[in-house]
Amino acid sequence: MVDALLYERRNYPLLIVISGPSGVGKDTIARLVIESRAEAFSFVVTATTRPPRPDEVDGQDYIFLSSDQFAEMIENNELLEYAIVYNDYKGIPKQQIRDALASGRDVIMRVDVQGAATIRKLIPNAITIFLTTNSEEELVDRLRERKSETSEGLNLRIATARQEMKRIHEFDYWIVNAEEQQETAVHQILSIITAAHCRINQRPIVL
Amino acid sequence: MVDALLYERRNYPLLIVISGPSGVGKDTIARLVIESRAEAFSFVVTATTRPPRPDEVDGQDYIFLSSDQFAEMIENNELLEYAIVYNDYKGIPKQQIRDALASGRDVIMRVDVQGAATIRKLIPNAITIFLTTNSEEELVDRLRERKSETSEGLNLRIATARQEMKRIHEFDYWIVNAEEQQETAVHQILSIITAAHCRINQRPIVL
To answer: Which end of chain A has fewer CB atoms < 10 Å from its terminal CB, N or C?
Structure first.
């Protein structure tokens, strides 16, 4: 008799990291993916010391913290990883991920390239997705359109984006977020998630 | 300046092996996957010495060969793999795969469990999918409904299916082809294919 377990589907929540250079559209794509199947996903919000942009909501887009609050989280070892990004601190509260995984839903995180590399080391079975554009020109254009940047800030981001593009090979998947083709990018990310749930060797996320 | 190659998507044709125990629905699912996006897929037809079933078409469902013809292909090293399956020979003509890959389209093969294991050894970057049912009862029922089986043949297939289920861990993916839910199985296979094209480390199939 065949072991009944062979017919029992083990399905653990996934940890999906959406990353890529600044300006590539991580926030938008992560939001569209979650909205497409809101009942299936939990979103992990990053903590940051940078001031909110006009349209950003605390606790939803980011957890906006003072430097002192952020320092306290570091000291209490409450962050999965943190880094200085453009003179501001960014970090991922461990409790956010634990709560999200405990819900049984797949967990989606939007993390900069530096942070994604760290997560990959700490959680090897995280699924890491690198968002990119069709060309460097397209990326630079998008950074330029972002009104919040000073000219100096812009140049820094372009230089950083160039460096970050070189780390693409540290990731599992590569998605082009082309102008006017966000639907394709979202469809591809949903396919990656569906495929991951069909893998034979699935292991739970541990952190 | 970032290397322009970073923005150039390398996309090689995939080799997708749909396998699973006898009676699980490999033929139907492979056909539905191909029909869903006929322009994107090539299908590799297996050669066999078994007689065609009433509704089967030579060159389309299988390449039906005499024992002598099959022996000649073996001698000329024209088969990727071959095996005796229920007293008949089955094998995969290499030229079929080469032609299919040369078309630039993804190649879909329907292969028994034994054959799939061999292909996995010869072509490690093939994508291997194991089709299964929700329970052993469902599988036995389907084998019983297949009118072409004698009682003895049926018992042999059930025993073989039990052994084959134990090899599921040699595969990459696991799809449940449940009664009345073929659409889900097809959607999952298409997702696996889409995801594979988004992988960062893609290599061409060599054989």
So the answer is: N
Domain of A31, CATH number, reads 3.40.50.300
Q: How many alpha carbons lie under 13 Å from residue B197 in its C-beta half-sphere? A: 22
Which of B77, B46, B75, B27 shows the shortest CA–CA distance to B177? Answer: B27
Compute mean pLDDT per 10 residues along chain A, 207 residues long, and list them: 54 94 91 93 92 92 95 95 87 92 93 90 95 90 77 85 91 92 95 96 87
- ipTM over 0.95 threshold: no
Residue of A nearest to B2 (CA): A162
Other beta carbons within 10 Å of A8:
10
d(CA B96, CA B102): 10
Is position B206 within any domain?
no
Chain A positions touching B173 (Cβ under 8 A) are: 195, 198-200
Query: Residue A6: inside a domain, yes or no?
Result: no
Q: Name chain B contacts of A173, Cβ cutoff 8 Å.
A: 195, 198-200
**Torsion sign across C-alpha atoms B112, B116, B122, B128:** positive
Residues 7-36 of B with CB under 8 A from A: 7, 9
Active site residues of B: 53, 146, 157
Q: Which of A132, A200, A202 to mutate to test the interface with B (most CBs of B within 10 A)?
A: A200
Q: What is the DSSP letter of A132?
A: E
- Could you report the per-residue pLDDT of B111-131, keeping only the tens digit for each? 989 889 889 999 999 999 999
Evaluate whether residue B6 is within a structural domain. no
A132/B196 touch (CB, cutoff 8 Å), yes or no: no
Give the predicted TM-score (pTM) of the model: 0.89
What is the dihedral sign for C-alpha B100, B198, A192, A121? positive
A207, part of any domain? no
* Nearest CA distance, A134 vs chain B (angstrom): 6
Tens-place pLDDT, residues B129-183: 999 998 888 888 888 887 666 777 888 888 988 899 999 999 999 999 988 889 9
Name the domain count of chain B.
Answer: 1
Q: Kindly report the nearest CA distance between residue A9 and chain B, in angstroms.
A: 9
